[in-house]
UniProtKB/TrEMBL annotation:
This is NnrU domain-containing protein. Its main location: membrane. It comes from Chenopodium quinoa. InterPro entries: NnrU_dom. The gene is LOC110714736. The keyword Transmembrane applies. One of its GO terms (molecular function) is 9,15,9'-tri-cis-zeta-carotene isomerase activity. GO terms for cellular component: chloroplast; membrane. The chain crosses the membrane at residues 96-115, 138-157, 169-190, 210-231, 336-355. The keyword Nucleotidyltransferase does not apply. It holds the Pfam family NnrU.
Length: 367
C-alpha cells in the first residue's frame, strides 16, 4: 500500500540571542551552514518521530493501465505494518513452549469452569436466558448482544486498561471474559440452528452446497487477520494494537466484518430459518459497530499514520483498488504465501471436516 513518507522540517536553529531555544526532538541530520553563510541561517533537518516504527519497502512496481497497478519508478513505502510476516530465525523455542503451556491451561480452565455441565457455570447463563425468553431466536440474539457488549466494551477501554494493569494482564482479562461468552454463543447456535420458523429450503438445489462451502472458506481468510501473531494472542509477546497494511488489508480495511458477513449470508442461505436470520442480524450488526469503533481506536493510537492508511484503503472490498486509491504491487500474491495465511487455510479445512465432531460435542452439553 503506497503512502507518503512523513518527513518534516519544523525547526530552524535559533539566533544566538534568541532566549527561547527550540524543543529538541531528535539530533539534526543535515546542517546547511557554511563559513560563508551567517549562523542564523543554519538549517538543521529533524525527522519528526512517528508513533509507528515505519517499515519501509522500496520496490519496482508493475507498469500498465490495469486497475490498482502503480506507475513505473513508484515506491511502495509502508506507513503501517507488513501483515503475516513470519521469520523462523526470529522465533524462540521457549516462547512457543510457553504458548503451548498457556493454551493447555486456558483450555482446561475453560472446560472445567464454563463448559462442563457438572462443574462449569456456562449452563446457568443459558438457563437464565431461556427462562426469560421462550424463543431460540431471542435467546441467541441475547447471547450475541452480551458477547458484543463485553467484547467491544473492553476493546474500547484497552488504552486505559493497559496503562493501569499492563498489556499482558489486560489481554488475559479480555480473553478470560470474552472467550466463555463466545463459546456459549457458538454452542447455542449449533444446537438450535434448525429450530424456529423455516423460511426457505435450498439445500437440495444443485450447486448451493458448493457455493456455501466456498463462501465459508473465503470468509475465514477475511475473519482471522488478528491471529497473525499467536504469541501476542496468548500474551507471550506483549500485545499490540496493530496497523496492518498489506495482504487482505489492501482489499478491505475491516476484513473481519467482511468475513463475518460472508459467513452469515452463506449459512443463512443454507439453513434458511428464523434462527439463522437472527444470528446473522446480531453478528453483522456487531461487526458493523466494530468498523466504527476500530477506526476510532486506530485513529487515537496512530493519528496521522492511520489517516494515511485510511485514505488508501476501503471498508467495502476492492473499492479503494477500483477507484485508484490502492495500488497493488506487482508481486501482490506473495503477501498471501506466508505461514499465517497457510495456517488459517489448514485450520479452515480442518474445521470443515471436523463439523460432525463439533456438532456432537455441542449436543452433549444440552444448551
Amino acid at each position: 500500500m503506497a503512502s507518503s513518507l512523513l518527513l518534516s522540517l519544523p525547526f530552524l536553529s535559533p539566533h544566538p540571542r534568541n532566549p527561547k531555544p527550540p524543543i529538541p526532538i531528535s539530533k539534526p541530520l543535515i546542517s546547511l551552514s557554511s563559513p560563508s553563510i551567517p549562523r542564523k541561517f543554519s538549517i538543521p533537518i529533524h525527522v519528526t518521530p512517528n508513533p509507528l516504527q515505519f517499515r519501509h519497502r522500496s520496490r519496482r512496481l508493475l507498469v500498465g493501465n490495469s486497475i490498482g497497478e502503480s506507475d513505473e519508478d513508484s515506491d511502495d513505502i509502508l506507513v503501517g505494518e507488513d501483515a503475516a510476516v513470519f521469520e523462523l530465525s526470529d522465533q524462540k523455542l521457549t516462547s512457543w513452549v510457553y504458548f503451548t503451556v498457556i493454551l493447555g491451561v486456558v483450555l482446561f480452565a475453560l472446560n472445567y469452569l464454563w463448559i462442563d455441565n457438572s462443574t462449569g457455570f456456562g449452563k446457568y447463563l443459558i438457563d437464565a436466558l431461556e427462562s426469560v425468553f421462550q424463543s431460540p431466536e431471542v435467546v441467541l440474539l441475547s447471547l450475541i448482544v452480551i458477547f458484543a457488549s463485553v467484547h467491544s466494551g473492553l476493546a474500547s477501554f484497552r488504552n486505559v486498561g493497559e496503562k493501569i494493569i499492563g498489556e499482558r494482564a489486560f489481554r488475559v482479562l479480555f480473553a478470560g471474559v470474552s472467550l466463555p461468552l463466545a463459546v456459549s454463543t457458538v454452542v447455542y447456535f449449533i444446537n438450535h440452528r434448525y429450530d424456529g420458523i423455516q423460511l426457505w429450503q435450498l439445500q437440495s438445489v444443485p450447486g448451493v452446497h458448493q457455493l456455501v462451502w466456498l463462501s465459508s472458506f473465503i470468509s475465514f481468510l477475511f475473519l482471522y487477520p488478528s491471529t497473525f501473531n499467536l504469541l501476542e494472542v496468548a500474551a507471550v509477546d506483549k500485545p499490540k494494537l496493530h496497523l496492518w497494511e498489506t495482504g487482505i488489508m489492501r482489499i478491505t480495511r475491516h476484513p473481519q466484518m467482511v468475513g463475518q458477513a460472508i459467513w452469515c449470508l452463506a449459512h443463512t442461505v443454507w439453513i434458511g430459518n428464523s434462527v439463522a436470520v437472527a444470528a446473522s442480524i446480531g453478528l453483522i450488526g456487531h461487526h458493523l459497530f466494530g468498523v466504527w469503533n476500530g477506526d476510532r481506536r486506530l485513529s487515537l493510537r496512530y493519528g496521522d499514520a492511520f489517516e494515511i492508511v485510511k485514505k488508501q484503503t476501503s471498508v467495502i472490498p476492492f473499492a479503494a483498488i477500483i477507484d485508484g486509491r490502492q495500488r497493488l504491487p506487482k508481486d501482490y500474491y506473495k503477501e498471501f504465501i506466508r505461514l499465517p495465511y497457510i495456517a488459517v487455510t489448514v485450520v479452515t479445512l480442518g474445521a470443515y471436516f471436523a463439523h460432525p465432531l463439533m456438532q456432537s460435542a455441542s449436543f452433549r452439553l444440552h444448551w
